[in-house]
Amino acid sequence: MASNEQTPVLEVKGLQTSFFTPDGEVKAVDGVDFSVNSNETLGIVGESGSGKSITSLSVMRLIQHPGKIVGGTIELSGEDLLKKSKQQFAKYRGNRLSMIFQEPMTSLNPVFTVGSQIAEAVRIHKKLDKKAAWQEAVNMLKLVGIPAPEDRAKRYPHELSGGMRQRVMIAIALSCDPELLIADEPTTALDVTIQAQILELIKELQEKSGMAVLMITHDLGVIAETADKVVVMYAGEVVEQADVKTLFKRPLHPYTQGLMNAIPRHDIDLDELEMIPGTVPTPQNMPSGCRFAERCPYARDLCVEKHPELATPSNNVDEGITTGQTRCWIYTDEWDGPNPTKGVATNQ
Amino acid sequence: MHIFILRRLLQLIPVLFGVTLVAFLIIQLVPGDVAQVMAGEAASEAQLEQMRENLGLNDPLVVQYGRFLGDLIMFDLGESVRTGQPVMDIIAPRFIITVELALWGMVVAVSVGLFFGILSATYRNTIRDYGTMTLAVVGLSMPNFWLGLLLIYWFSIQLGVLPTSGWGTWQQVIMPAITMGTAGAAVIARMTRSSMLEVIDQDYVRTARAKGVSERFVVYKHAFRNALIPVVTVIGLQFGYFLSGAVLTENVFAINGLGRLVVDAISQRDFPVVQGAVIVLAITFVFVNFLVDIAYRVLNKRIDLN
């Protein structure tokens, strides 16, 4: 791997991605920072509309018109990807960084065999001849655990199941040994049993290659299972950031707490599923204060008026407890009084 | 695949029967006495009887149709009532010219149509897109005989670089091919554009980009191969229209194709020739559609063979 301990594989700073609609600029991602090291998995969690998918597509520079990256830097092992020309960046895509998508059913081209779709990536980046690339494709199918790979390579996508297709997608993504794999909801469209297999496979392949993984999901279960570090996104911003153990032990932000309470539990009797009332504010009418204030049970005037910064808590945290960073007034010196969330989320 | 082709071939049989039946009835359905119509007012009763005898019009319909089919299988389409030549011999050379003309028209229609369709889709909602689509509407709305006349005026009369009529040399091919192909190019361009736009936002196109495929290959390989599927159908239909629509172009450029032959035969009431031409054109049309089906199947792996 090209990276060392000082340089993260991926470092995103102040990323801003907007969509320019007839009604004006819509800020889908508004100043997001995070970094991933090699052999590490960063989970990005958030509900629909939080900007997590746009963030991942921005890293791949796959944002389509009318969307545009308007600010920030994206560095891959120290190289600023946003400064590369289209042609230069195409050499990195699928080679040094690659991506798998949510929809394995539609993510493969229906008119080409799966083998040729893997071989294509190999031919582009490794400059192998047709035969060698095909052999490499068969090897990749074998690596991702597809039985009878020689035969399957000649099949068309519609002849394979969803789980198999996602394995093929992983084979394409990993065929050139990327430093970074972005997995955008890789298991959402799959059966539960297949989900576990796919996550296990990604983990296994990561252990072999040492690549960094960016796991985008709305599912905290997936985060708990795969991630080392977690970024919680809400309405285009990071609202909490911590390593996975810390996050699950002591979620700080009321939104994170809400997400955790919304996970159905089997160990205690509950009549109703917990949920967070309301929806993510639309980018057209983004609140000027805390973006979660409208849905937050603890919101005060302060929250509605002033926009909080992502920071390490300086208030309302017990001595000796390690925390990550959060974007909430409760944990700042400006918050008057005790922590209203105390005890709320400790049931996790 | 072989079974698919065989099945499609078998399905052609009833269609071909229908075609021959309609063509056969052309003569029977002429109002009044066919022999009289063909021979003209001045013919004597003996001449009419002779003609009925020659055409077998005195036999029962079923017998006539049976004989007609039997002859057809032997590639015998009867004789012209004007010249007495076998219809097959009259039609064959003219048919080849019309097919050539239609094929050259297709070359223009497909190359121009696909090029501008893809251009338009990749630059959607830009000046290039609007320009191309405006041109397409113009091409579609312009009667092709008028386009032919304009071309003759510019290239033959004003510039004097191309011959006004005839068929055989490459100079004689250019203007008729453009005349024939323009409307088809417009239809294909519009179809290609909408089909490309449908495909270009698909997940697998994004996957291709994510693999590092260059934008050119994303468009021409990944998107185009899928967008082509509905376009092939339109191309096949266009070829059929070209065969039957050739008559106008042939007249404008004085090309001795099948279209002109049919028009002449109709005005001379030479029904066996009309009948023969209809059958040849219809069978060609059916056969082209059969080829389109096969192409469709080759392009679209998802078509269920059953």
TrEMBL record, chain B:
User: Where would I find the ABC transmembrane type-1 domain in this sequence?
Assistant: 95-292
Which InterPro entries does this chain map to? BPD_transp_1_N, MetI-like, MetI-like_sf, Opp2B
Question: Gene3D superfamilies from the entry?
Answer: MetI-like
Cellular location of this protein?
Answer: Cell membrane
UniProt key word Ion transport: yes
Tell me where on the tree of life, at the top rank, the source sits.
Bacteria
Q: How does it sit in the membrane?
A: Multi-pass membrane protein
Q: Which key words are in the record?
A: Cell membrane, Ion transport, Membrane, Nickel, Nickel transport, Transmembrane, Transmembrane helix, Transport
Q: Which residues cross the membrane?
A: 12-30, 101-123, 135-157, 169-189, 227-253, 273-292
Q: How does it assemble?
A: The complex is composed of two ATP-binding proteins (NikD and NikE), two transmembrane proteins (NikB and NikC) and a solute-binding protein (NikA).
> Can you tell me which family this protein belongs to?
Belongs to the binding-protein-dependent transport system permease family. OppBC subfamily.
Name this polypeptide is given: Nickel import system permease protein NikB
Recorded source organism is Geomicrobium sediminis
